[in-house]
Design goal:
Shape: globular
CATH class of the domain at 227-382: Alpha Beta
CATH superfamily of the domain at 227-382: Thiolase/Chalcone synthase
CATH architecture of the domain at 227-382: 3-Layer(aba) Sandwich
Number of strands: 15
Oligomer: single chain
Strand order of the largest sheet: 7-6-8-9-1-10-15-14-13
Structural class: alpha+beta
Length: 409
């Protein structure tokens, strides 16, 4: 049975973080050692990020919160709120992003009404509350209260793929199923000043964002979908359990992102792709660059460098991932969906792989990495939809982005 991705939409909070200004704030914290200060400058400058988004308006230099909890612009100090304080903010601010992305995805799905939604899958690893985001979306969008709801929590950066795979399974089991998948992450809630290299790297990379998709097996005449969901695979690398992890501390969640992660990916990416590509005779044994479009989760610049080198992909083929990283940072589970959206928004008349939108029947190969070390892979096929009169393409990589606000600290 063919299962379709009928819409894919993104959302980000309104506050913009300027990477160079954030670097200066983190590097100036009084508790840093000389080595820690150098690491801050190195990590922020080498991250290949220009801007990120945060749900914490308090982080802007123009903010004048009466009782600042995260950043005091009067003193330039980063503060250390408890995990409860951070999670309470998550419950409020993540709900806004979940609902915004879900609303946009349902509104953009051709031939699908919100009353058609039968299943809802929500994803996040940056906070918890109950009744959770699945409940909030049902209420806010006026979905049928009998919608089957599922939440994938604390899986990390690869979790969009288990969510899409679950959606495909629901549709395979019931051809009338219509599944709404929503990922929303507030990674910036957990940034902190530290001399620890992993914590510094997390502060340099992570950001907030959301993405949502509508999936169904319904063939709706004259309402073409965006993609078909072809196949998914999961691989655990034989090493890496200690190199990437996500733990709960007293002052927020604590990222473990060891410097050896890119080397693990470099060593095992070929094996991780094999189960996915071996299931398709048209791709088996071909050079990886023959697949024109690659949606790689930009866990960091060095990870993208290793993927590109090992798979011998062109600069153009990595452009959607690198541009997503540059404009948005790493938004955990939502990020790879931003990359796919970037690919779909490319102009139709580009000359090189990565600079032209995929044509009818072209494949997109996608990968995401997370704790374990877990590698999730997926294959999609583009469906070309006739453009309605008077419509225009969104700017690649900028769907849902607000106009930049005052720079953040």
């Amino acid at each position: 049975m063919t299962v379709y991705l009928r819409s894919l939409e993104t959302a980000v909070p309104p506050t913009v973080l300027i990477q160079s200004e954030a670097r200066d704030v983190f590097a100036a914290q009084p508790g840093l050692s000389r080595l820690g200060s150098r690491l801050v400058s190195t990590c922020f400058d080498s991250a290949a990020i220009d801007t990120r988004y945060t749900a914490l308006a308090e982080l802007t230099t123009r903010s004048r919160a009466e009782n600042p909890q995260f950043f005091d612009p009067a003193t330039g100090l980063l503060l250390s709120p408890s995990t409860k304080v951070r999670n309470d903010i998550f419950a409020t601010e993540a709900t806004k992003l979940f609902i915004e992305a879900a609303e946009k995805a349902v509104s953009a799905a051709p031939g699908v009404d919100r009353s058609d939604i039968t299943h809802l899958v929500t994803v996040s690893c940056t906070g918890f509350f109950n009744p959770g985001p699945d409940y909030k979306i049902v209420r806010a969008l006026g979905l049928n209260p009998a919608v089957q709801r599922y939440h994938l929590g604390f899986m990390g950066c690869y979790a969009a793929f288990p969510a899409l795979r679950a959606a495909k399974s629901f549709c395979d089991a019931d051809p009338e199923a219509v599944v709404l998948v929503v990922c929303a992450e507030l990674c910036s809630l957990h940034v902190r000043t530290s001399n620890d290299p992993d914590t510094i790297m997390g502060s340099a990379l992570f950001a907030d964002g959301a993405a949502a998709a509508v999936i169904s097996a319904r063939d709706i005449p004259d309402q073409p979908a965006l993609l078909t969901l072809d196949s998914f695979e999961t691989v655990l690398t034989p090493v890496g359990e200690e190199a990437m992890a996500w733990n709960i501390g007293d002052e927020g969640f604590e990222m473990v992102l060891g410097s050896y992660v890119p080397h693990i990916i470099d060593d095992h990416i070929i094996g991780a792709l094999e189960p996915l590509l071996s299931g398709d005779g048209s791709l088996l044994g071909r050079p990886y660059r023959d697949i024109r479009h690659w949606a790689i989760h930009p866990g960091g610049r060095s990870i993208l460098d290793k993927v590109q080198s090992r798979l011998e992909l062109s600069d153009e083929q990595l452009l959607p991932a690198r541009e997503t990283l540059r404009n948005y940072g790493n938004m955990s589970s939502a990020t790879v969906l931003f990359v796919i959206r970037h690919i779909l928004d490319l102009p139709a008349d580009g000359d090189d792989p990565g600079t032209a939108a995929p044509g009818d029947g072209e494949r997109i190969c996608s990968m995401a990495f997370g704790p374990g070390l877990t590698v999730e892979t997926a294959l999609f096929t583009k469906i070309t939809a006739p453009k309605a009169a008077g419509t225009a393409d969104a700017n690649p990589g900028q769907r849902g982005a607000p106009r930049p606000a005052a720079a953040l600290a």
